[in-house]
Write the structure tokens for this entry.
Amino acid sequence: MPSRDRVLQFGKYEIVDAIGTGGMATVYRARLPGPMGFEKPVAVKVLLEEAAGDPDLVRMFVDEARLGARLNHPNIAHVLEFGEADGRYFLAMEYVDGVSLSRLLKPGGRRRKARGLPVEAATFVADQVLRALEYAHGLIQEGRPAGVIHRDISPQNVLVDRSGAVKVCDFGIATGPWRDERTRTGVVKGKVGYMAPEQAAGARVGPQADLYSVGLLLVAMLEGGHPFEGTNTEEIRRQARQGMDPDRIARLPGGEALREVIATALAPRPKDRFPSAEAMRRAMREAVPDREEAGVRQLAQMVQEAAAAPVPAGRRSRKASVAPTAVPSMPRAAAPAGTRVLVGLVVASGLILAAALVMALFGWSLPR
């Protein structure tokens, strides 16, 4: 039976709650209602009001919608619709019923120490991310290679559902030939803790930059911590430009063959890395051949536990503050007509009963 915990109405979508917010948009869990009790769960990404006044951010949002409409792969969260409602641009996307990889790595909130994933689970996640990248890197658009480079592979942009399925999301800063005329050398985009050295330096990037990010993702999953840490963004960016310490790679769990895969993915020079996402997948399959069955089972169990765990107080307060204020033009959902009539009858009955009690108390009677 459909749940009726509707909070806000945005166009044809019923907003349930806020999933998260960033510098450009807020993402909401929502549903698309239909006749006879039909409803489809969706994620709605709404451009923030302050971002709507920045032409570059609007263009990035529109580019994400256009690219998302062309990406059709089981390991990529699908874009369902791009539109405008209440004067705000939005993207309706596939809702993944699960958690982000960052939540799996740090299930207890910001103050809890991150935990590592089992080797099979970690390599299965990397395998599925590489499937998505293999498709995106080789995408053909109008008979020509589109060369989509994600540029933001990180735990926040990898989703795992309750069955253990893995999906890559957020192609908002993806680059390729269609954006070449807009790319400026020295401009750094992406999460600094998961960047290849050339990306951290502001140079042009190719597919090998995404493979480097997958290598860092593996380090994070196996260690249970951030690949690069520091007190400020510039310090982390400096570490990213220098690359991963080989001695640290040598201490990773999973066996020598897997460490060699990670070391190749994290080679300082792009030409020394794997030539493609498929080549990295093949090497990882040989290093951990039995990862899929065990990995899916482990991930499904971890997602169930993470989804059932209470959200830390800090996250709850942030979530509660986002929902009513991030999209101020959303009207609150009106009560159903039947409910309004019933409330009116109850109020009227109460007034009549109160009047009767007063008349009885003072001995009054109705005129004949």
Remarks:
- The chain has 13 helices and eleven strands.
- The chain has three domains: 8-96+314-325, 98-310, 340-368.
